[in-house]
Hints:
Strand order of the largest sheet: 3-4-5-6
Largest sheet: 4 strands, mixed
Oligomer: single chain
Distance between the termini: 84 Å
Structural class: alpha/beta
Number of strands: 10
Amino acid sequence: MFSSVSTDFSASIVVFLVALPLCIGVAAASGVNVALGIISGIVGGLIVGFLPGSNLQVSGPAAGLAVLVLEFVTEHGVGMLGPVVFISGILQMILGMLKLGRMFQSISLSVVQGMLAGIGVPLILSQIYALVDSKQLGTALKNMAGLPDLVSDVMGDRDKSAALMLGVMAVVICFMWKKVPAPLNKVPAPLVAVILGAGIAAIPGFGEVKKVSFGSMAEAIKFTGPSQLSHIFDPAILMMIVTFTVIASAESLFSAAAVDRMHSGPPTKYNAELFSQGVGNTICGLLGALPMTAVIVRSAANVQAGAKTKLSRILHGFWLLSFGLLLPGLLGLIPITILAGVLLQAGWKLFNPPAFAAMWKKDRGEGVVMFITTLAIVVTNLLDGVVAGLAIAIILTAMRMSHMTIRKTTDGDTARLELKGNVTFLRLPKLIDALEDISDLDRVFIDGRKISHLDMACRAQIEEFAESRRKAGAEVELELPGDPTVEKVDEVVVPDEPITEEIGTPVKETPQPEPVGAAYASEPAPAYQQHTAAGPAYGHGHVAHGSPYARQHQHAQQHQHNNQHPHAPQPTHQAHYGQQHNPQHNPQHHPQQHPHAPQHPNHQYGMGGQGPARPMHQQHQPQYNQHAQVHIPNQAHGPQHNGVPNGQPQGPHDGQQQMPPQGYAPPPGYGPQETPYQGTPMVQGYGPQGYQQPSQGGYWGPDDDWAVQQFGEGTRR
Length: 717
């Protein structure tokens, strides 16, 4: 706790030394008594410093509003400044209570940077005149036009040349002070410039330069009363109120976002911060002082000085009050040109020329928006320039969001126009050109099924085109979003998705008796006929146990396996080759059964003329299961089976350690004591009569084309 207080105390001294010359300089640049700038700084510390929002952000008179205030005061007088600031503060409080603080963060970054640059350029131009103790001419364009005459005036005036020398010294110190070795560079550069400038200006014979005129803060205060508030309905004053509200709010919240990135403490609560800024401006307006905002220069100095809590910004307001009350005479020693040099550096940082190149490099469209915003502010005024920048940014965003693709296909006198994306009025010229290109064809189909958004202007254009072409005798079909019915034109429609053909003709299954036994669920299994028994040309390829097409079988012997699946069904009786099998099984019968295999109740191998052949479709192929063990009926299980290792495929993949795919088993084979078939004619159930089984140990080989034609390529052995 003590360490936090000590660091906040030292940080408050640093912030005070930074804020003092800025308060004086902003007031001088705004054309008002410098005491009004100090009063705004005091309110920002002692009032806003206590309020919620941001803990480390410091408020006070902002350089960004100096040119705007100068123009207003020149036209309407200092007496109307208080009411404008007062009403602006009330509007800020209302915006904060309505929780619209986040609204200012939705502004395009290019507009924000363009606005800051637009504030910086007029500030630089105005401070060039103050740098040589000359009176500025007014607007930024007038100040720019008067620069040649200003140069000639300085060349022939010794006092103005002396002021120029002090001002240039202040600019150089502000730009280069960070390169001074530590710990000297910890002293704020504006304070160093003020002290050195005041000392040099006090040297006898240096030259007569203008200095700050400061009376007392009590005399500078002009309370806002009902008589001044009665003039706020003037359109020009209302416009200035809106401008102050928008710019002060935006600058404060943008500064808050930048300060949050500088520290790891609690982030800014934007609605509360906006309300707090409104309270501060309401009080400044009552006192007739300058409008205040959160100032990034003071806030950055506060964070860099190690501030942890609100105490540092509160104490900085106390130091400003003490200085204004106890040492006002010291302000009379400060040359105006020194303050101009400090503000000129601040204006250059707002202008930030490298930001234009960086924005152009990242996004040329946003770079154009940034440039137009800056140019509009310089040429017109701050509010009009920001509005122009926002309008350009909105148009750019709409153009990018309204991305439309038109694909045209023609075949003789038939045309198909396919529209995709956002079809809005911004793309209406492109749409009209596409429609005109097909206006001389007899048959037209406009496909808008892939349109994300179709606005009324484009819909009306398409419908008018269709109506006019129909009156001319052409056939026009439309498919647009929101139509209750969609008509198809077979001659024109091109499918968006490839049509997948079903291979093979399904064979209707013969109803079988309902199975019994604990191995079956009461609900029927999924439709196993929707899948395909397909795979590479293994030596084995018959439908096996454990696949989605598996049927439960019984065989002549109950085989014992070393690796048994705990949940496999068990056989209850013996069955011979070629006979119908009972669906009840022994757990030892199938060592590893696929966990998701649907169990069809009545399956027959269909070998040797027993039972009908099963249909198979060619749409989905089962994945290979490298861990499945395939059971061969009536065959002993062991390390060898007729010279072939158990579970190893036979045929074109000899010698590879490759398991047969899941769902496949060898065709009806022979037991250990049986002789392989050699050319025995086959009957119904496995193949058509008259086909001779090849002499390959009883296995179907590449010649079983009948199976490929009937059941698909996966049935080839």
